[in-house]
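If you are new to this repository, start here. Below is one unmodified record pulled from the training split, so you can see the exact layout before writing a loader.
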Amino acid sequence: VLVKLLLTLLAAADVASAFVPPMHTKNFLCRVQSAVDDADTAASVQIPPFIASPVLEQVYPALIAHKDKYGNPNIPLGSADGKRCSTLRRLHFQNKLTEEEAAHLTDLGFRFHSFEDVYYECDFDEMLQKLLDYQQEFQTFQIPKKYEPDPELGAWVTMLRRLKQIDDLPEDQVSKLDAVEFEWISTRKCGSSFMKRYREVLDKLTEVHDVGGDEAVAELLSNDAEIKKWIDAQKQVLANGKLSESRVQYMEDLPGVDWMKEL
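And here is the target side for that same chain:
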């Protein structure tokens, strides 16, 4: 099959050379050779026996070819394989990949969805209907952040509230949610030490920022060693590669703080 593909592409190159300048012909031949190399790599890939997902099995050779060529397996959108990668991320967030499959993809350097990705990837109206179904069943919009039957829905609702808090949610979406009397304030409290301290810091910075803006926040940080110490600690966790994408987003939402710079 590869031989036939190569012969076909080379024949096309011969035809192209009769109609285009030499430089364009050279570029075309380079693209032909690149396509042949990618196809050769993909054809030689052995699918690990533990892979059970049909989507992962189908895109796996392309993942390896992309990693060999670019250093990572994250194929961008714009191709069929890019769309399959997007599907893989949703399957992972929905807990529909096995632990072994997810671990193997992580080892390859595959980037999975964060909470932020879920909001931007999902269709708003589709997710809104899921939320309304949840509300009808449980008589509340207080869905758990990590809702096991539908992890995407829990993450999506979490991002709605976060984006609304920083005035970054489109007005038409706010209107639709207001129309169904969506509860913008979560009554569920995360028990992690990070979130407990984060809420304290966020409340304090918001209070100061509302009165005096960025300058007031800067003055607070110069006088409050505990808050500054906590923010610096999160910067160090990030530098060590151990701060999750969702927590990075939380830190970026702190008012008046460019936390990626030295304070």
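Two things worth knowing about this chain: Residues 51 and 57 are 6 Å apart (CA to CA). The mean pLDDT is 80.
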